[in-house]
Amino acid sequence: MSKKIQEKTAVEKNNSAAFSLKTFTANPLVSTYLPVIVFALVTFVLRWRLLDIPLERDEGGFAYMGYTWLNGTPLFSDYVDVKPPMIYILYGIFEGLFGATPKGIHTGLFIFNLGFTITFYFYIKKKFSFGTAVISSLVFIFLSALPNVFGFAAHATQLLLWPAIAGIWLTDYSLEKSKIHYLVPAGFLLGMAFLVKQQAIGFMLLAGFYLTYLTLIKDKNWKRWLFTGSILTISALSPYLICIIWFYFSGNLNNFWYWTYVWPAQFAATQTGNIDVFKMMYNMVTNNIEIFWYLGLSGVILSCLDQWSAENKVFTVLLAIFGFISLSVGFHYYPHYFVVLLPAISLGVGLAFHFTYRILSRFTQNTIFTYPAMIFAFILLFYKQYTPQKNYFTKTKKADIVRQVYGTNPFQESYILGNKIKSMSKSGDSILVLGSEPELLFYAKLPTISQHMHYYQLVDGGPQNDSLQTELITKVEKSKPRFLVFARSGFSWLVKDPNNQLFQWVNKLFQSYNLKGVINIYKNKPSEYYWDAEATQDKVGSEDVLFFFELKQ
Asked: Do 439 and 324 share a domain, yes or no?
């Protein structure tokens, strides 16, 4: 070969390398800073209008418990709920940093959502590829913000993902680099995710099974498996053990244990897996975005046929399996529970695009055309999936979003009524909300007579119903709260025994109060608000009503 031909060949190779994705992404500006900026912008664009959307029922309970904790009331003392304590602490932190408002709480959600996305991106980029990580992260940002999974609400399933994925990454990193001490923070983060919500158990098991694969199955080193597994397990259990010790010395261990373990276990024992419920919820969650779910599930399967290492294939399959296990805790399959499956679905979409890229690469060696073609295909797909949701992100009024997603649940109405009560109240006032509408308590910013955020436990037909109802009746008759709200809504009670003593007593209680507000809630037309002299029984015109009372002087 002549010198001129050799020089020409070298130039062609250099030109080709200039268009190599590997060379392109080796630049820190491209692989580190640019994606993070893009993720932040996309997250902001999708979520900024949703920041001050009214709180729903679960958020209301978290917010009020967090607010009272922030103001000095120990958790599981005066007020109780059925979630682990970290979710209330996070809400309290959000309220302290960004304001005790829906916007402040949803700003915290914004940060956690973006934090997960960035962590997820760097982990997937290191484990798979730059393109796979970018696509997976963008898909997650989009899917996790949709109304299909109540993405505007700061549910515990949204907030547990960041510490969970960080714990899994540290587990992987510690074994890869033989830096066993990293298993301590890895396990601790996984344990903290569990303290946000029990569904994080799936991610804890994922970390444990992946560790087992790497140490026992792949390396066949049972001593290393036993040693590393013990460290991870002890570290993961430590946050819960710290909680038990803390509540023991604070005198609230009985409340903590009963409401976060005993009652949920009793309730779960009455539940069974229902394929019809799963199908119904799955159809709701995937409505108008089926292609992303099909691609995600296909990508998980196709990853086993791709060039990835055995470790990566095992990780992908485990992420999908244990994501589904997390979803299935309690067998409820509520739409927001599907959030724990979104990391696997999002990764699957990225892997599906990678597999398609590899197929295309067999027909062309010119990456100048292959890369832009894949980028264009993803942008087109993203746009096609975004279009049906465009009004939700850009135009639909927040009250209409709440009505479309939650039906006649009184969440928008609670925002209006709660703020009205706050404007009427003075120091020393208290409130009682009869019904599972703790968001009203949060807006009113008043102490409540009842310790319960939700009233399901009082009317669910369980063995504790009579004693809890009697305790509540005694407290109310002794304390005489100034403000009383009664939620006549099936969703607020889910009552199984309408003839119980609580409802019989409520009719008697009303005699001590003046009716100050009637709010009729309709599914297909705006709610009606009647205040003061206009608030009379003949103004009741809906099945779902909020009644507002003030104690007679």
From this structure: no
